[in-house]
Amino acid sequence: MENPEHQLKTLVRDSYTRVAQQGFDQNSASCCGSGPSLSTVDTAVMAESYAQLEGYVPEADLGLGCGLPTQFAQIRPGDTVIDLGSGAGNDAFVARHETGPTGKVIGVDFTPAMIEKARRNAEVRGFNNVEFRFGDIEAMPVSDTVADVIVSNCVLNLVPDKPAVFRDMFRVLKPGGHFSISDIVLVGELPEEIKQAAELYAGCVSGAIDQEAYLGGLREAGFQNLSLQKAKPISLPDEILKSYLSEPQLADFRASGAGVVSITVYGEKAGTKKINAHSNEAKAACCGPDSSCC
C-alpha cells in the first residue's frame, strides 16, 4: 500500500503539472490554482497582484500565491535567495531584481513541468543569475549555509512533513540569514470532512495547520525573532463547503469561529551575517567620505 505522504505528494505534483499547462486566468480563478473543481472561488480570495513590484514577469505568474513575500523579504543587492516551490519563476524573478547582478536566486520545485517552464522563462530573458533545481523542499538540492534569504508563496501548506521543511530551511540559511514566507494557516479546527478532501488539499486548504503550531514548528527548528508581516482572512464560499459538509455541519463550522488565514511570516537564523563584497554595506564600510577606494 502506498505511503499516505507519498500519495499526497503525487496528488500535488499531478495537480501542479496541470496548472503549469494553464494560464493565469484559469489558475487564479481557483484556490491556489488547484483547477476547475474549485473554480467558484473568487480570483481575489487567495492571490494578490504582483503588477506593482519591480522585476515582475507576467508570463511567470500563474496566479498561485496567497501573498507577496518578496515585497517583505528585505532582499539586498548581492544576496543569495532561495525560493521554495518556485513554480514558473514568479517570486524568483522579483527576487532577482532585488539582488541585482551580483546576487543569485535558486528556485526549488518538485514538479518537472514547472521547472521546465521556469527555465524557459529565464533563458528567453537572459536571466543568468537565476537557476531552477528539481527537488523536494524537505531535502533541498542545496548545500549548507548558502542562502541569505528564503522566500516562498503558498507552498509549505502543501507539504505533509512541514517540520522537515523548517529544518531544511534552517540548514541552508547562513548565520544571520532570514526568511519571509506567505502561507495558509488555520485559526481553530477544520471539520474532518474538509481535512480529508483531496481537491482541497491540492488547493491549499486542508493541508494547512494551526497558526500557532506553524509558528511553533519554526521555533523548534531554531528560528528566532518571528513576526507576522501580514495576515489576511480567507472566506471560503458556502458553495464550495457544501460539497463536503451538510447544512448543519456548515452552520456549526461557521459558528465555531474557525477560519483560514493567509499570513506572511518573517524569521531569522541566529548569527552575524557577513557583508557581501558587492553590497552597499561593503562599499559604505570601505569607501570613506571621498569614495576613493570604490
Describe the structure.
The protein has helices at residues 4-20, 24-28, 69-72, 90-99, 112-124, 162-172, 192-195, 198-202, 211-220, 238-241, 247-256, 280-287; strands at residues 80-84, 104-109, 130-134, 147-153, 173-187, 224-234, 259-268. With 294 residues, the protein is α/β, with parallel strands linked by helices. It has one domain (4-270): Vaccinia Virus protein VP39 (Rossmann fold). Helix 6 (162-172) packs across helix 9 (211-220). It is globular. The protein starts with a helix and ends in a 7-residue tail after the last helix.
Spans of 5+ residues with little confidence (pLDDT < 50)? 27-31, 33-44, 284-294
> Main β-sheet, in a few words?
7 strands, mixed
Structural Rg:
19 Å
Which structural class best describes the helix and strand composition? alpha/beta
The average pLDDT value, as a whole number, equals: 84
Tally the beta strands: 7
| CATH C-level category | Alpha Beta
Shape descriptor reads globular
Count structural domains: 1
CATH architectural arrangement: 3-Layer(aba) Sandwich
Q: Helicity level, as a percent range? A: 25-40%
Beta content = 15-25%
Query: The CATH topology is what?
Result: Rossmann fold
CATH homologous superfamily label = Vaccinia Virus protein VP39
How many angstroms does the end-to-end distance come to? 63 Å
Q: Secondary-structure element order, as H and E? A: HHHEHEHEEHEHHHEHHEH
Individual helix count: 12
Q: Numbering strands along the chain, what is their spatial order in the largest sheet?
A: 3-2-1-4-5-7-6
